[in-house]
Design brief:
Helix content: 55-70%
Number of helices: 3
Shape: elongated
Keywords: Metal-binding, Zinc, Zinc-finger
Distance between the termini: 42 Å
Largest sheet: none
Protein name: TraR/DksA family transcriptional regulator
GO molecular function, one term: zinc ion binding
Pfam families: zf-dskA_traR
InterPro entries: Znf_C4-type_bac (IPR020460), Znf_DskA_TraR (IPR000962), Znf_DskA_TraR_CS (IPR020458)
Number of strands: 0
Radius of gyration: 18 Å
């Protein structure tokens, strides 16, 4: 059974990992609300959730699928 010190250590490690991941996120904000692939407007919810996004969800999904197949 984990004691309080072990749990505190895990919480600290997790917090540091989250902070590191956030620091590595792009700091840029895409100002163009249009998808660079298809030209459709990127939905506001996506722009708020991922301000650096330059593609709509559909085009980003296609990009990711292409990347996975290319890596094989």
């Amino acid at each position: 059974m984990a004691d309080t010190a072990d749990l505190a250590g895990e919480i600290i490690e997790t917090s540091l990992a989250i902070a590191l991941a956030r620091a590595q996120l792009p700091n840029t904000v895409a100002t163009d609300p249009w998808c660079e692939e298809c030209g459709e407007e990127i939905p506001q919810k996506r722009r708020l959730a991922a301000p650096w996004a330059t593609t709509c969800i559909n085009c980003q999904s296609v990009r990711e699928r292409r990347g996975k197949h290319a890596a094989r």
